[in-house]
Amino acid sequence: MLLDLHTHSIKSDDGRAKVENYCQWIRSKNLPIDGFVLTEHRQFDAESDYSALAEKFDLCILKASEVETEYGHVLVYGVTPALQAEFDFGSISLPLAKVIAACNAHGAIAVPCHPGRPRVGMFAHTDALGVPAGVEIVEIYNGGSRDQEDQIAIEHASQLGYRGIGGSDSHIVSHVGRCATRFDAEIKSIDDLVLALKTGQFEAVNLKTGD
Amino acid sequence: MAISTIQEVVFGEDLPTFEPDTSLATTRQFAALVGWGGARFSDHEAARKEGLAGAMVPGILNQGYLVAMIHHWAPNAEIKAIDTVFRAPVIADEKHTISGVVTDVNEADGQVEIDLTVANEKGETRVFGTATVQLPIA
Amino acid sequence: MDQDITAAREKFLNQDFDEKSFSVPAEKTIEYARLCGETAERFLDASHPDFQAPPTYIASLSGSRALPEGFPRFGIGMDAGKGIECFLPVRPGTTITGRTHLHDIYSKTGRSGRMVFAVSRIAFYDAEGNLLANSDSRVVMREKS
Q1: ipTM reported for the complex surpasses 0.85
Q2: Mean of all residue pLDDT scores within chain A
Q3: Chains near C, with 3+ CB pairs < 8 A?
Q4: Taking CB atoms and an 8 Å limit, are A16 and B12 in contact across chains?
Q5: Which of A27, A120, A174, A208 is the best residue to mutate to test the B interface, defined by the most B CB atoms within 10 Å of its own CB?
Q6: What distance in Å separates the CA atoms of residue A159 and residue B18, rounded to the nearest whole number?
Q7: Given A13, A90, A120, which is nearest C109 (Cβ)?
Q8: Mutate which of B83, B91, B128, B132 to test chain A, going by most A C-beta atoms within 10 A?
Q9: Could you give the CA distance from residue B18 to residue B20 in angstroms, rounded to a whole number?
Q10: Which CATH number does B6-20+58-134 carry?
Q11: Under DSSP, is residue C35 helix (H, G, I), strand (E, B) or coil?
Q12: Which residue from B71, B78, B84 is facing C82, i.e. has the nearest CB?
């Protein structure tokens, strides 16, 4: 099962895509992905219900978040009200250790995204701040990466023994599905996704290059 | 073939790609026309001294290219809204490609939404955005 | 949301802080259209019955000031994006009026530290007071980290 683990809709300040149009796009272009995860910036969109769209287009649509830490941006899968009470998702300077600890305490998982990117990526900060404890997975394929950003992510992840996921980081409809993550298990819910990430049965896929 | 009504538009169709004139001469001329002084739009060397990779194409010229592409595709299209995000500088004298794709078609009100991108030769998105366009209803 | 951003929102949002008149010379709008690569005659031919400025022309018009007096200096401002809403065509040869207010203020982290975004909106009106278009400019101010 192939899921794009990093997408933004109009709920994000810089997102320009409607979720229904993502669905239409995936189906009309016969993209090989089976669904996507909405990772809105600095928030968890608790109110939107995409179950009707998921059913109509036979796609898995899940919700997560992209938060901001001193190590850059971090995807959080498995957001619950209890987790939301642990830290301010809207903050732009969260301590990564706090995010990871809260995720561990509430059955969620934190995944630094575009880690090879200057400033907003984790590996831009490891020389100065050290390698953070508790990271097990990073995003190694990001659809918005430029220059050598993905390569930096892959090399550092390999050195540190991290597993890698892929996501398009799409902000407009036509960018969905540029990168994704292949799972052995069938994912139907955010709990399924978190379990699959924690058990390690997945691989990152770059659909732009075929890697 | 040029699009003239909403009924001719197909969800997911690509607009004809367009290679804009991003020459330094055009960039300089445009900046002068709109009264934007400064070396960053007119002089590669001076722009590099400002920490840029070279002289930049003004953001609004990129936006103009995107709208021109829409009119190449549908000459009678009325732009209702266009929103562009400048992700990275578009450097003058470098080849760029303007592309657009239809991401929503509303036959009832004649409106179309289009994803827009300006990409460099490496395929990196420098500018992206969306436009809402009104087309005649047949 | 950071306290300084909240304070700036409370103080500055949705209050007109500038008004300016703009003439719209036909030769300028035609040249603008030509440089953008426009091919539609209504933007290029002054004798066309629907002759008008290209839709993005208004994005090139700036008020007397980009930010209200007293707005905090978060850092050096850069152009982060433009948005335009068009309601009626802008006719060359006319004079239009632009009124400016701050439409949004927010912050995020970027490749170079905290970035504060201010969305400045100029609403353009014709001589009869009809709203022709809104032009939004997102200015990003990068703080030194």
Answers
A1: yes
A2: 95
A3: A, B
A4: no
A5: A174
A6: 43
A7: A120
A8: B128
A9: 6
A10: 3.10.129.10
A11: helix
A12: B84
C10 CB near a chain B CB, below 8 Å? Answer: no
> pLDDT tens, A50-76?
999 999 999 999 999 999 999 999 999
Q: C3-24+63-142 — its CATH code?
A: 3.10.129.10
Residue B53: CA count within 13 A, CB half-sphere: 8
Q: Where are the alpha helices (DSSP H) in A78-204?
A: 81-84, 96-105, 126-129, 149-160, 190-199
pLDDT score for A210: 67
* Rounded CA separation C55/B70 (Å): 12
**Interface contact A45, partner C, CB < 8 A:** no
Which pair of tokens denotes residue A8?
Answer: 């933004």
Question: How confident is residue C1, by pLDDT bands cut at 50, 70 and 90?
Answer: low
- CA separation for the pair A135, C90 (Å, rounded): 55
Q: How far is C65 from chain B (nearest CA, A)?
A: 15
Six token digits for residue A93: 């300077």
Determine, for residues C107 and A92 on separate chains, whether the beta-carbon distance falls below 8 Å.
yes
Minimum-distance CB partner of C112 among A68, A93, A119: A119
Domain segments of chain B: what residues? 6-20+58-134
What's the N-to-C CA distance of chain A in angstroms? 16
CATH code of the domain made up of A2-206: 3.20.20.140
Taking phi first (over 0 means left), then psi (-120 to 50 degrees means alpha), and beta for anything else, what does residue A78 get? left
